[in-house]
């Protein structure tokens, strides 16, 4: 079964064809990230306008790259929530029009379910149940994936998402957007012990909080400025990355130990972080759990993950009519 997946929740306009939820046929991503970087973050209006410009050619190329036409597609899957609403609506309305005109079923997909399904593309042998940390620009959830369409959230951030913390810290340090890759790059030559950053206290055993950590980085910058000095950017980036990756890995592994999870996974944009991947790998091995990490190209937003999850939503009977609407927020 071939599913066309369409994604437009943030600054990536993406489309892909995936067979049976596991086999990638094509994967096309158009992005406004360079333009967004001029403003230090995503400007929703710019994202929406670029989606309108890019979406038709992006979907066409996804079909072309796979050597298929819309007639070969069994269903059109689209991210309908959560995300920047103006951006989400571009994908949803395009998918509605395409599904209607081609006479294909329309399958709504939750963005975080999509991030989790990116794992199926990298690891065809992976099957639920498994434990997954989904960390992106908008979310940080520790999720028990019970089966392909059932989830139980064990923990979440009580304030900033992990990716958001990377983006804000990057801005504080004068590093470019998106913050995750630029903080990670700066951290390469830094000393992780140079700055003593706090471990924020948070209610809830598996919850995380990054707002205090972000403020602690800002305080270091302000403290240095008051002394007429400058912070050492690689050192502060390394200290921050070590702390945030440490907190995320610790909470995931704590949840894995408590629940006896045999399979531990990462998903979402922040899953591209090398230090986080290393800590989870090492820790899970000690627990005797198998680790599954998404290929780097499937960590950030893409259409393939939506097509992969779209397959599982479709075979579970979750289709929608033309009344489908986009939503800015929605629990997984
Ligand atoms: O999943 P994603 O592409 O979009 C959302 O759903 O939000 O995640 C984007 C987030 C951004 O905040 C970005 O800074 C972060 O993922 N990110 C990283 C890395 N690459 C991207 N964070 C840490 N380390 C990275 N290497
Ligand atoms: Zn995402």
Automatic annotation (TrEMBL):
UniProt keyword list: Acyltransferase, Cytoplasm, Iron, Metal-binding, Transferase, tRNA processing
EC number: 2.3.1.234
Presence of the UniProt keyword Signal in the record: no
Residues annotated for substrate binding in this entry: 134-138, 167, 180, 273
Keyword Electron transport listed: no
Top EC class for this record: transferase
Annotated residues for binding of Fe cation: 111, 115, 301
Cofactor binding remark: Binds 1 Fe(2+) ion per subunit.
Places the protein is found: Cytoplasm
Domain Gcp-like: 24-307
Gene3D superfamilies: 3.30.420.40
CC cofactor: Fe(2+)
A GO molecular function held by the record: tRNA N(6)-L-threonylcarbamoyladenine synthase activity
The reaction(s) this protein catalyses: L-threonylcarbamoyladenylate + adenosine(37) in tRNA = N(6)-L-threonylcarbamoyladenosine(37) in tRNA + AMP + H(+)
Family as reported in the entry's similarity comment: Belongs to the KAE1 / TsaD family.
Function: Required for the formation of a threonylcarbamoyl group on adenosine at position 37 (t(6)A37) in tRNAs that read codons beginning with adenine. Is involved in the transfer of the threonylcarbamoyl moiety of threonylcarbamoyl-AMP (TC-AMP) to the N6 group of A37, together with TsaE and TsaB. TsaD likely plays a direct catalytic role in this reaction.
NCBIfam families registered for this protein in UniProt: gcp_kae1, T6A_TsaD_YgjD
Name of this protein: tRNA N6-adenosine threonylcarbamoyltransferase
Organism, scientific name: Faecalibacterium intestinale
């Amino acid at each position: 079964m071939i599913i066309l997946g369409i994604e437009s929740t943030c600054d990536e306009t993406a489309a892909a064809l995936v067979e049976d939820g596991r086999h990638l046929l094509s994967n096309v991503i158009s992005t406004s990230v360079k333009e967004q970087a001029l403003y230090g973050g995503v400007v929703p209006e710019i994202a929406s306008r670029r989606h309108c410009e890019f979406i038709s050619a992006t979907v066409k190329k996804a079909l072309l790259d796979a050597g298929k036409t819309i007639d070969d597609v069994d269903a059109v899957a689209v991210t309908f929530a959560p995300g920047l609403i103006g951006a989400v609506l571009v994908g949803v309305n395009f998918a509605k029009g395409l599904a209607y005109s081609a006479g294909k079923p329309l399958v709504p997909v939750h963005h975080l379910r999509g991030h989790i399904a990116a794992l199926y593309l990298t690891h065809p042998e992976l099957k639920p149940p498994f434990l997954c940390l989904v960390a992106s620009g908008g979310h940080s959830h520790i999720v028990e994936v019970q089966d392909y369409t059932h989830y139980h959230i064990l923990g979440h951030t009580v304030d900033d998402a992990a990716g958001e913390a990377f983006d804000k810290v990057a801005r504080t340090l004068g590093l470019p957007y998106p913050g995750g890759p630029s903080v990670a790059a700066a951290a390469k030559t830094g000393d992780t012990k140079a700055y003593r950053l706090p471990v924020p206290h948070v209610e809830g055993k598996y919850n995380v909080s990054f707002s205090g950590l972000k403020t602690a980085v800002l305080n270091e910058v302000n403290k240095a400025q008051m002394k007429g000095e400058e912070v050492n950017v690689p050192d502060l980036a390394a200290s921050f990355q070590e702390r945030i990756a440490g907190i995320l890995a610790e909470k995931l592994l704590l949840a894995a130990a408590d629940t006896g999870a045999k399979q531990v996974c990462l998903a979402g944009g922040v899953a591209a972080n090398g230090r986080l991947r290393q800590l989870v790998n090492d820790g899970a091995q000690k627990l005797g759990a198998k680790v599954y990490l998404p290929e780097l190209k499937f960590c950030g937003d893409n259409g393939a993950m939506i097509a992969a999850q779209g397959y599982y939503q479709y075979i579970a009977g979750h289709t929608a009519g033309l009344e489908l609407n986009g939503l800015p927020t929605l629990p997984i």
